[in-house]
TrEMBL record:
Residues 5-177 form the Isochorismatase-like domain. This is Nicotinamidase-related amidase. The lineage of its organism: Bacteria, Bacillati, Actinomycetota, Actinomycetes, Propionibacteriales. GO terms for molecular function: hydrolase activity. Keywords: Hydrolase.
């Protein structure tokens, strides 16, 4: 039996503020509503650091350039965007790297709740979505990517990933198609 969960990854205010698609957040909100309506757990994944970023090596090109206090509890931009905010009983996972699994307890939470299929949304397609998909596939999760529930600042990179790379390890569908039969 398959037990899916919808992962809403990096939809934090600072990241959503860079999204150029005015309908993106609304589409993800629709996927969240559909998941809840179907009894599918919604799990939020956010990037977060302690004050002073002790988890970040200066050698890390991606995170080493992030100035403190970005993505700490003192940073209002680190909050999940209010249009897709979690409910009180939703799980919020804090990660320390690009993949939703790295530096987090995501795998523990998924296995404890019997989840074996992940439905991925997030910012950016070439960041958290790609890294999480690859690691989840290696951990034997079944995968679905909501293509238009993912966003990348480079439309060509998004296209190549969703049309050519992701289908090797995941079902790739649009939010509207998934809503018609979530799971």
């Amino acid at each position: 039996m398959t037990r899916p969960a919808l992962l809403v990854m990096d939809l934090q205010i600072a990241m959503v503020g860079r999204v150029e698609d005015p309908h993106y957040v609304r589409r993800v909100a629709g996927a969240i509503d559909a998941a809840r309506g179907a009894g599918i757990p919604v799990i939020y994944v956010v990037v977060g650091f302690r004050p002073g970023h002790p988890e970040v090596s200066p050698a890390n090109k991606a995170f080493g350039a992030i100035p403190p206090p970005a993505f700490t509890t003192a940073d209002p931009g680190a909050a999940i965007h209010p249009d897709v905010a979690p409910l009180a009983d939703d799980v919020v996972i804090t990660k320390r790297r690009v993949s939703a699994f790295t530096g987090s307890d995501l795998d523990v939470v998924l296995r404890a709740t019997g989840v074996d299929r992940l439905v991925l949304t997030g910012i950016a397609t070439s960041g958290v979505v790609l890294s999480t998909l690859r690691q989840a596939a290696d951990l034997d999760y079944r995968l679905t990517v909501l293509a238009d529930g993912c966003y990348d600042p480079d439309p060509e990179v998004h296209r190549v990933l969703t049309e050519k790379v992701f289908p090797r390890q995941a079902d790739v569908v649009d939010v509207e198609d998934w809503i018609s039969g979530p799971g």
